[in-house]
Amino acid sequence: MAAFALAAMTPVPLLILGALAGGVWLWAGFLYMALLAALLDQLIPYVAGDAPEGQEFPGADALLASVGVSALALVAVATWAVAGPSGLSAGQRLLMFFGAGFWLGQVGHPAAHELIHRTSRPLFRLGQAFYAAILFGQHASAHRLVHHRHVASDEDPNSAREGESFYRFAPRAWWGSFRAGWQAEDALRARAKSRRGLHPYAIYLTGGAVALALAFVLAGWPGVLAWAGLGLHAQMQVLVSDYVQHYGLRRARLPDGRLEPVGPRHSWNTAHWFSSAMMLNAPRHSDHHAHPSRPYPALRLPPADEAPRLPWPLPVACTLAFLPRLWRRRLGPHLRRWRENAPPLTQP
After folding, report:
1. Contact yes or no for 165/149 (Cβ under 8 A)
2. What phi, psi does 309 have (nearest 5°)?
């Protein structure tokens, strides 16, 4: 737990000090997110072991809550620093925007992703609040109710097809998840025969409006633009992680017409230690799909002959995905090799 906390939370005080004082603090926070994780992953080829089956992690949820609250605070501080009377130079404002945006997408999002899978109502609401704050509230519904059910199939808007560029995938996934999540919430409420309380999408839209109103209070219309820009920056990282972690992987159709059960073969994983700690084990994606409620410190890394592995740390793979030709050229051989060597399908 100490490794998760140190890797995930270190940039927060650096960025907040940078918002107040600029200078070396801003550079430290930005370079931590933009460079350090990739360097440590490559320079120290260490793979963290799996936790013993059944081990408990009493501090896991406390760290999630700390990251979630820090994310809500950081987006407000960053908005003020970028668009308000912070006294930062234009270059320092750019460093703040990208440093905070990287942290929101690479640490805040993995934490919120875990929070919306928790059964505790306050923790779940905190995860919803994060996604509403980055103007992407639909993810709290679509991820749980659509993505986990239909992953690696054409019914899931957040599973990328082979050859599809990120720039074609992103608008399809954004709008598709908004619509599919809304429909799934409507169906859930209808089955429960209860329409009491606000519809989740009313919460998301209201939360987004409140966030932009706070941005206006902090820095006027430039603050609204800065907050929306930070939200878009974080959203792109959410979408590109979905793009990368399921790119080209498809569930087979069984003789009876049903899709094969979701298994390790339907998610790309990475074995890099530092980015996994910083991203709260989000790169161990196959095990998350197999056990959505499993605490993130307990997620296991499947053997390479059971689940496909990316050759790069997840942040590096996501960067490559923004360069479609390079992405297809570099990942194509790994995808073909996986398909040739994948274990045979075991039918239920």
Report:
1. no
2. -125, 135
